[in-house]
């Protein structure tokens, strides 16, 4: 489901429960400000594209989130800003299922390339993305939150799968396991 401003409190709760991630990559705990940033407008340096935020629910609770930017820096390129699930659900396949749903959806939108960054202090995230077909394009230094970190810029060429079309109202579909 696509998240809206009305989902702020649930996203804030998820960010608080995932504070280990935010402390690792931003040097600060997750909470209201993190939810504001995820749901908020595009950063100033992003000159094109559209932000989309999708969530996974279990009952009334938000258990995972993905923030993606379509059409940046070029019309058929996408970026993943965040893909996160609750700590006790990591390693259960939920994050992979969320990624696969998003990958299939963005392929149908005509994307040919997806990029993301992974901080060097988060090697588990690099392993996750490599298992899902991404490779390191380059290293860079990026400031996120309070931390400046060396990051891996990773990419995935979507190839022929990106040539399939889809109606504009389609959304990624994920099924939360009970």
Secondary-structure map with pairings?
Layout lengths: L7 H10 L1 H8 L5 H8 L10 E9 L2 E10 L6 E9 L8 H15 L4 E7 L3 H9 L3 E10 L2 E11 L21
Parallel strand pairs: 3-4
Antiparallel strand pairs: 1-2, 2-3, 4-6, 5-6
Characterization of the model:
The protein is 28% helix and 31% strand. Strands 1-2-3-4-6-5 form a six-stranded mixed sheet, sandwiched between helices. By secondary structure, the protein is α+β, with helices and mostly antiparallel strands. The protein is globular. The chain has helices at 8-17, 19-26, 32-39, 94-108, 123-131; strands at 50-58, 61-70, 77-85, 113-119, 135-144, 147-157. 31% of the residues are buried. The chain has a single domain, classed as Gcn5-related N-acetyltransferase (GNAT) (Aminopeptidase), CATH 3.40.630.30. Helix 1 (8-17) crosses helix 3 (32-39).
Q: Nutshell version of this structure?
A:
Helix content is 28%, strand content 31%. The chain is an alpha+beta fold.
């Amino acid at each position: 489901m696509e998240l809206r401003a009305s989902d702020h409190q649930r996203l804030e709760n998820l960010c608080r429960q995932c504070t280990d991630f935010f402390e690792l990559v931003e040097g600060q705990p997750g909470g209201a400000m993190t939810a504001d940033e995820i749901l908020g407008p595009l950063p100033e340096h992003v000159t094109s594209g559209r932000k989309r935020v999708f969530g996974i629910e279990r009952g009334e609770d938000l258990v995972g989130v993905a923030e993606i930017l379509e059409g940046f820096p070029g019309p058929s390129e996408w970026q993943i800003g965040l893909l996160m699930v609750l700590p006790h659900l990591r390693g259960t396949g939920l994050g992979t299922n969320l990624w696969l749903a998003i990958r299939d959806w963005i392929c149908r939108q005509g994307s040919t390339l997806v990029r993301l960054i992974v901080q060097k202090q988060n090697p588990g995230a690099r392993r996750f993305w490599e298992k899902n077909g991404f490779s390191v394009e380059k290293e860079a230094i990026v400031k996120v939150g309070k931390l400046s970190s060396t990051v891996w810029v990773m990419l995935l060429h979507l190839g022929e799968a990106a040539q399939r079309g889809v109606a504009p109202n389609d959304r990624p579909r994920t099924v939360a396991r009970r």
